[in-house]
Amino acid sequence: MRFARLALASCFAVSQAQVLHQDAQQPLKLEESARRVAVIGAGAAGASAAYHLRKFADEAGVKANITIFERNAYIGGRSTTVQAFDDPSSDPIELGASIFVKVNYILSNATEEFGLRTVELGSAREYDGYNGTARLAAAPLLGVWDGEKFLITQSATNRWWDTAKLLWRYGLAPIRTNNLVKKTVNAFLSLYEEPMFPFASLSDAAYELGLTAVTATTGWQYLEENKVGGLFAQEVVQAATRVNYAQNLGLIHGLETMVCMATDGAVGVEGGNWKIFEKMVEGATKDVLLGTAVSAVRKVEGGGYILEWKEVEGGDGSAESKMKSEHFDSVVLAAPHQFSDIEIAPESKRVPDKVPYVQLHVTLFTSPHLLSPQAFNLPPDELVPEIILTTLQPDEKPGSDPKGVGRAGFFSISLLQPIVNRKVNPPREEFTYKIFSPTEIDAKFLIKILGLQDSPLGAEDDEGEEAQLDVSKEDVSWIYRKVWHSYPYHYPRVTFEEISLDKDFWYTSGIEGFISTMETSALMGKNVARLIVDDWMGRKKDTHVDDGGKREL
Cystine design at 378: which of 46, 243, 382, 475 (Cβ 3.0–4.6 Å)? Predict the structure, then answer.
């Protein structure tokens, strides 16, 4: 890797012969030296920024050397997978971002371009019949649970009947919501095309598209203003905001609420959505430094930035190498500023606000047992839905701390694809579960939902204290826990973080307070890439930061 600074300059010299013979004048050419760009973060935003920067630079005839720094030992950020039992032959299970939808054009187009196969979410109905799974075919596909009862369930096959039930219970609310989603999504999609794209200010773009009127109110208020309140908002829409963003309808803003209801064509990439971003990185550069923590970004008086970093073994801080540094002409910070642990000196002209993020507990586990009907107050002969979403009861407050989860105690439980447990003899097919919750899922919770009656639930030891509960390997054969700073709390707001933090210093994570998805992060990465190349080519658009930290329009 070269350590010398490579500058890009424009050649404006016009020869005397060209002055005399205008028809022979040559088009403007840039010098052969290349711009050096550092992208910090290899998640959806960073991978997209690097990939589209390569494409836009090539189209403009500009040479760009791109280096990607990633603290983790893998590409994909919050899109990553694990394999049950640490068995490399087992199907990967999404630990983070699981699906994208039909209107996610960047991700959908990328899967086609890269030849990646998309699949619908795995269903428990694919099990071969172990331990009573033949009965599973008759189970509801989805149910909404309020901590005491299922408010509504839907089947996997009888959709006409489910539609009739929805209209009978909720009136025209489902239809009005669908129309509202279409209207909101159509406005958002304007960000992909000229004249809105590329947008130098997300706040200005959102205002021009009328979307700040949607982000300015809570989801509950926005639905009520559009005649979609009452039961449908409480039971269905709130269940969607909880499973997607671990937030209740009385707190989350209206735009993110609409995103939760835009579910047409939901798919994932076979083997993991991270493969999209791996392909983007491969198409952008060979200079990818995984397990590398950037510690400082220092502005150089003559232009550009010095980056300092250490290689961290495994990305977990267990072993560190000697500090390294290099000069780059432009820097893209493609990770939340508040979690980056990067010293920026001198302080950038615009500093992103520190905002509260959800701490989401994701629990994956495998078991030979189906969920217990009794745990959900169902008769013993009834079947528990494959996917359990949750909502608050009418008297519960939509708080943002873990108590905001309400009596349900969790956000969702999903029965995933089958898994073969080869750790037992003979190998057996088991059920795979995923739980989203605000706190750690403990043994007591697992004992309850699996109906393990012989376990010491509620037992006391000799000193009158509750016994320490555990679950045997026979009942829960594998468990994996992960806590994510998954997305911001999407409180109502009308302004969003600046994209340009300083000259040649760009930021992508401001879009997370607007909409937090793989697609929108990829959109902001693409947007930043275009702004960078436009800046190189002298095609500046609207927004820069002056010395007082204000936007000049």
Answer: 382
Is it true that domain 34-79+270-353+497-552 has CATH number 3.50.50.60?
yes
Residue 525, both tokens? 């990465």
Give the integer Cα–Cα distance in Å for 324 and 321. Answer: 9
Residue with tokens 């699996």, as numbered in its chain: 450
- Is residue 205 within 8 Å of 199, Cβ to Cβ? yes
CATH 3.90.660 residue ranges of the chain are 122-265+357-488
pTM given for the model: 0.88
The fold for domain 122-265+357-488 equals: Polyamine Oxidase; Chain A, domain 2 (3.90.660)
Pick the closest to residue 173 from 101, 252, 102, 235 (CA basis): 235
Q: Where along the chain do the CATH 3.50.50.60 domains lie?
A: 34-79+270-353+497-552
155 Cβ partners below 8 Å, 6+ apart? 140, 141, 161, 162
Rounded CA gap, 108 and 266, in Å? 11
Distance CA 419, CA 59 (A): 46
Q: What percentage of the chain exceeds 70 in pLDDT? A: 83
Among candidate residues 521, 383, 553, the one with its CA nearest the CA of residue 50? 521
pLDDT of residue 143: 96
Which pLDDT does position 30 carry in this prediction? 39
What are the residue ranges in the chain where pLDDT is below 50?
1-31, 131-134, 314-319, 455-467, 543-553
- Please tell me the predicted confidence (pLDDT) of residue 417: 82
Kindly report the number of other CB atoms within 10 A of residue 499's CB atom. Answer: 24
